[in-house]
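Hey all, sorry for the wall of text incoming. These are the two entities for the joint prediction.
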Amino acid sequence: MSAYTDLMTFQRETEALGQVMGRLGWDQETMMPAGAAEQRADEMAALDGVLHARKTSPKIGEWLAIVDPEDAAGKRQVELIRHRYERTQRVPADLSAALARTTSLAHRVWAEARATNDFTLFAPKLTEVLSLTREKASALADGTGLYDALLEDYEPGTNEAELETMFDALRPSLVALREKILGSDRDVPTLAGTFEEAGQLALSDTLARAFGYDTQHGRIDKAVHPFSSGSGLDVRITTRTMPDDPFNCFYSTIHEVGHACYEQGIDTDYLLTPLGRGVSMGVHESQSRIYENQLGRSKAFTGWLFRQMVAQFGDFGIPDADTFYATVNRCASGYIRTEADEVHYNLHVLLRFDLERDLIAGRLDVADLPDAWDTRFEHDFGLKVDQPANGVLQDVHWSEALFGYFPTYTLGNVYAACLHDALRRDIPDLDDQLADGNTRAATTWLRDKVHRHGGLFKPRDVIERATGTVPSEAPLLAYLDAKFGQIYGT
Amino acid sequence: MSAYTDLMTFQRETEALGQVMGRLGWDQETMMPAGAAEQRADEMAALDGVLHARKTSPKIGEWLAIVDPEDAAGKRQVELIRHRYERTQRVPADLSAALARTTSLAHRVWAEARATNDFTLFAPKLTEVLSLTREKASALADGTGLYDALLEDYEPGTNEAELETMFDALRPSLVALREKILGSDRDVPTLAGTFEEAGQLALSDTLARAFGYDTQHGRIDKAVHPFSSGSGLDVRITTRTMPDDPFNCFYSTIHEVGHACYEQGIDTDYLLTPLGRGVSMGVHESQSRIYENQLGRSKAFTGWLFRQMVAQFGDFGIPDADTFYATVNRCASGYIRTEADEVHYNLHVLLRFDLERDLIAGRLDVADLPDAWDTRFEHDFGLKVDQPANGVLQDVHWSEALFGYFPTYTLGNVYAACLHDALRRDIPDLDDQLADGNTRAATTWLRDKVHRHGGLFKPRDVIERATGTVPSEAPLLAYLDAKFGQIYGT
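and here's what came out:
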């Protein structure tokens, strides 16, 4: 048992240092003075060096060779540590370093290319990143495909074939649904006017609390791109405000609260261990999405939100709660993934999933990527991409070598819909509660079924245990059809 | 040259990690959610372990054995690294660990003892801390006395005898001055009424900017106890507000700006090296004090501040700038060091200096400390200590084993007065500038003479080079006599 204790002591320190690294990232986006960036890079590089040395320490290998915990949690801790250690061991140090250097540079070049709308500026760097990523995938692949090897970083246990089957079933239905909606003659109004920042932030706080965010173990600040950060007893979120779009603030807040409540809800026995974090990107996204969409954008809850907005801002031009519900859920074709509605969002993701698989497989050259993007986009969205910043250059992910990350967004939406079905089944009067702005039963259910387990079960098993069925895309499609069919009368 | 490069690369990483540790401390006092304390302790302990391992790494010894840089800055870098490394080597690891454990516990016991006004609660822990500190001093003493060995951590290059001579010359003059002042029949009014927080913070910002604080490389937040934190490109300060005492806010801000401008002003060539930080506690305090007192509490500058306060708060009951100047500098006997005026402050420090030297030398038992404190206090302040929280329990330092720290406060005041004499000599029209709230010539002088050098020169040499004379207590006494003689007509 002593080797297990030693291993876990070492691991806890590593996890604690990982939390420090996360806090530096939080600070950088919220508090750091503008002129401190250069020094901060040195600070983070130094801490990254410490973390890398610990994660590759031969001591871990020695402990792993002899540990044999008896309880399920201990076995799973060791399984996770072993899995990550073996992956770390497979990637040569010089390849890791080359990837870190290249992505750091590529990120800057990407930002410049996006600002100047010039893909050719980014192409050489993306080619380098892609080449190194394929090399890394080869090193990691353990009898699996390259893309499978990359997926493992974000959604352990899934694979390309499984996702492809699921997503191929989604795509035609989503395209058909969006065509129906856009062909509808229902007129859904948008918000007009401006909404003062203090009011947006006050209501954002109210929403965070309504969804059970614990400010004794977190805090809310502003950032350019909202995010959630940290695990355990210190889980912080950020939001943003735009004068003419308070929904951006409110639903960013609810989305990040979903991520944060997952982390805050994990059994504190798992604090600073591999089990003490959300189990995968997909399961994480399922929490942010079910908070944001299935609950936060439900007819019942938006009825309550409408009253809060009237109380905060007075008459803002939307006549009643029904209209408000439609406005919150208004569908429109657009270029940008992060601004997309529930119907279009997954089409954005599916496009990236298919293109990045082609890149990794070597079926698509970087030089041909913009054309491939634009062709696919026009097919699925009925719109011609007007400029690269609205197309292939819009997302940061590929510059950072995050190949395999995109599909977890849609997987999260799929999981959210599965959980939502089970939630509705277990809480028949959910809408009555949401209509009062009361999410307690829903968030307690999610905490019990998902959050508290942290990394104890494999990602897909979390959903299966919570819902009692094998996850599939069917609930998401049924949910979208019903919801938007009602709103648009299709 | 390669060993030097390797040593400095290693050292830069250590310094960067030290900055991260400082940022965690800042976060803890300003941003951290209340419920995160336990996890934060784990995070800081993990990082402390990393720092300790680096600071005691045998690699440093190997590099030090062969490096031989040719330029003055390189020689000084090596001198500082060698000095610290050798000291670290001299303290056995188990003694370091025992001190860390004991002071952590003693700090909590001290807080409880202070809250309940019960010295006997604290005495056993203080006895333990003292015993371990004496043990550490023995290990560090290199042919010097125990107290000298401790001083070296805060004010390298000075010693007990030197400070004793200087402070013994100060004490009777300060006692005589305070008696003259308190015997004066001049009536100096205090502030009355309350001052809203937003106005205090706005004026605090104005003051920080007036004194040259660079918010591109820093930020101002609120904290219970104001402090300055960080070096190089990210130097943050905190302040606090009390409704009935805006001077507390303003002069806390100016004081911390003094510390921060020192750090911000250091030559960026020294970034993340031993030369890239203020050279000693005494020189650091000289900067905070000259900003706060000789400049910030001058008649010329308070004339400008009076106008700012009237503009911010309207008529607040002080009729004119002359009365305001007296109010800002009002002298009164009081129990608490941190609330003391310029005349009483050093008497507080001298008391602690003498008592802690007696403790370290074994001339005074912990059990006899309260009596010794109260007797000395009554002699120097003409007041009987009414309760331990207002006497021997007021300061945190001894619970944290910071023996040798107190004298740097008064040394800072001594140095500030020396610098102030030289500053007045070099800038004859300083008062005309300060009367407009313009500190640029003064702060530029300090930057050139003190700040930019960082750790390049030994502490005392910094002052001697800046002023052209050997530092002595005479300028401080002359400054206090003149200033308070004028205010109190003595």
